Amino acid sequence: MNNVDNSGEVLQAVKAFADSAHGTQLRRYSGERYITHPIRVMETCSEYTSDVCVLCACLMHDILEDTHTGDQVIRDFLCRIMPHDHVERTLKLVIELTDVYTPGGFPSLNRRLRKKREITRLSHISAEAQTIKYADLIDNATNIFIHDPDFAQVYLQEGWALLEKMNKGNAELYQRAVKTVSDCLELLESKEVI
Question: Whole-prediction pTM value?
Fold first, then answer.
């Protein structure tokens, strides 16, 4: 049941699992292996917490949404490397971070309406999941700002609306996310003026 006792070994095992789950997926703009994003999210969160469940959830936060891996597969994997209470906490965080209002699930809703509902949903998730979402937002905002300024305007406005409603997580990381989104929006506006 708990073959891996060291949190560093647990994180290495989860990273390998997440990398395998994402398979050949690449980041849209950079062409990097997809796992680079969850790793950066985990590294950002690790500056604010050493909670292994949170850090493992960082590494797996996009698996349910972006792969064919189901929650039972994640649970079965985690049961081999961590205690049951950690398995359930980690999986709960991953589920909380998985978009519900997707184009496939809600084809009659446009992006604006889906995001509005998703923001409301995310405002009610746990503080730990919100903390992970801040790190996710920081990494995505920076990446999209650099590589797709046109879409960045939309994404950053959505991020700003999300941060207005989602403020239960780590206060320092929340402020970092606010600053990142704000700085990117200001830079975009200054480019439009030129």
Answer: 0.93
